[in-house]
Amino acid sequence: MIKIIAGEKGEGKTKKLIEMANEAAKTAKGHVVFIDDDNRHMYDLHYNIRFVKTNYKMDDQRILFGFICGILSQDSDIEQIYIDGLNNIVENLTNEDIAEFTAEIGKLSAENGVDFVFIISSKADTLPEGIKRYII
Questions:
Q1: In angstroms, how far is CA 86 from the centroid of its own chain?
Q2: What angle do CA 22, 28, 34 make, to 5 degrees?
């Protein structure tokens, strides 16, 4: 399953993502992972959530996809992955890149039984049609 929180800066996307992750951590039988590009929200998360900070900007979405695959290869008990600020982690992200990333994450989700929730800093109506069904 994939869910996308879309909107412009200052609309409360991160707060919503943190609330979702914290709720999931209370009931999850497996592990919950939260990926972010900085440590600002690390202490807002439930203690059972595994916080992963990306230490560098990634050139494209394929690098982030490989990063996520590496996380999954180290822990087969991951149930959910939350990504705060896809646009902050990946430089120069285009709508085509977002569509490609979402398709790959969809396959990964289905193959591994992992749910993904991530933020895209863009108005929902400007995103590609193929991913609008994932927007919450």
A1: 7
A2: 45
Task: Decide if 80 contacts 114 (C-beta within 8 A).
Answer: yes
Tell me, yes or no, if the pTM score tops 0.85: yes
pLDDT averages per 10-residue partition of the chain, 136 residues: 93 94 94 94 93 92 95 94 93 92 96 96 90 92
pLDDT of amino acid 63: 95
- Diameter of the chain measured on Cα atoms: 37
3 sits in which H/E element: strand 2-7
Q: Tokens standing for 65?
A: 């996809």
Residues 19 and 21: their CA atoms lie apart, in Å, by 5
